[in-house]
From TrEMBL:
Residues 103-274 form the D-isomer specific 2-hydroxyacid dehydrogenase NAD-binding domain. This is 2-hydroxyacid dehydrogenase. GO terms for molecular function: glyoxylate reductase (NADPH) activity; hydroxypyruvate reductase [NAD(P)H] activity; NAD binding. Keywords: NAD, Oxidoreductase. It comes from Arthrobacter wenxiniae. SUPFAM superfamilies: NAD(P)-binding Rossmann-fold domains. InterPro entries: D-isomer_2-hydroxyacid_DH (IPR050223), D-isomer_DH_NAD-bd (IPR006140), NAD(P)-bd_dom_sf (IPR036291). One of its GO terms (cellular component) is cytosol.
């Protein structure tokens, strides 16, 4: 049985504008979850992007049929979401942009772009021979939507891609190794890209033991969550010049001003902007439209990851 009316709250005018004209039966209102809710019953609530799980407490006393996140990650949601709610993540929204940034971090680190930018800022011409991306072995730790999108973008760079997921399996692109095989796979890698969800099992996955298995001058790219890596271990290996790092996420986050990671020439840091591109808002609006239309038709929502 479908619905005659679906009320959707969005956190800001930008998403409302990207959504455009609402289909018949869909009403859009703005609610940033900082003030009182616009109604006691809201069919779909979209929290602010990167607003943190603390905002979910605003749903106490609100009847919401679906909480539609603007992020892929959902660590901490189950503990913060009031009982009786359904939470969906933003699969299909961020994979492309996150994969773009991952490849950009790899290319910038391999070809030494930060060094050239610093040299140009000093007004000096400093030619350097740097490692290529071609002919390198890239280990993708995490082979969901983002991992697959990264592999798609690496195909033209003549790399060898090794895939790793929670469990070994076969995919159309080839064999996927289980995460239990990491001890034998890490020593073979020139570049490791970590894109796993944060969970008890993946917290500090990138630790001293993980890093010690890598060959000297390997590049570690973290696009998942900051706590997937043990920051003191990262700092130790980078300070010794043994490894290079490219980090879109850190622990703590934001990284405090003056943190020693900022000072290291072999560390490239971006401020958790993997999904923050011009592609995000139109894709988020399309996902939200699909969710509203499915609700009108009486269909189950997409991407449900938590029920409380």
């Amino acid at each position: 049985m479908g619905e005659d009316h679906v009320l959707v709250s969005v956190p800001d005018a930008a998403l409302r504008e990207a959504f455009g004209a609402a289909p018949e039966g869909v009403e859009i209102v703005e609610w940033d979850m900082a003030g009182p809710p616009p109604a006691a019953v809201i069919d779909i609530v979209v929290p602010p992007y990167m607003g943190g799980t603390g905002l979910l407490a605003a749903l106490e006393g609100v009847t919401a049929r679906l909480v539609q996140s603007q992020s892929i990650g959902f660590d901490g949601v189950a503990a913060a979401l009031p009982p009786g709610n359904v939470f969906a993540n933003a699969v299909s929204v961020h994979e492309t942009s996150t994969a773009e940034l991952a490849v950009a971090l790899i290319l910038a680190s391999q070809r030494g772009l930060p060094e050239f930018v610093r040299a140009a800022g000093r007004g000096t011409w400093t030619p350097l021979r740097r490692p290529s991306l071609a002919d390198r072995t890239v280990l993708l730790v995490g082979y969901g939507g983002v991992g697959k999108a990264i592999e798609d973008r690496l195909r033209g760079f003549e790399t060898t891609v090794v895939r790793v997921a929670t469990r070994a399996r076969e995919e159309p692109a080839g064999h996927v190794h289980g995460i239990d095989e990491l001890p034998s796979l890490l020593p073979q890698a020139d570049i490791v890209v970590v894109g796993v969800p944060l969970s008890d099992a993946t917290t500090h996955l990138i630790n001293d033991g993980f890093l010690s298995l890598l060959r000297d001058d390997a590049l570690v790219v973290n696009i998942s969550r900051g706590a997937v890596a043990d920051t003191p271990a990262l700092l130790d290996h980078a300070r010794r010049g043994r490894l290079r790092l490219a980090l879109d996420v850190t622990d703590p986050e934001p990284l405090p001003d003056g943190h020693p990671l900022f000072d290291l020439p072999n560390v490239l840091i971006t401020p958790h902007v993997g999904g923050a591109s011009s592609a995000m808002m139109p894709r988020m609006a399309r996902l939200l439209r699909r969710q509203a239309e499915r609700m009108l038709r009486g269909e189950e929502p997409l991407n449900v990851v938590v029920r409380t």
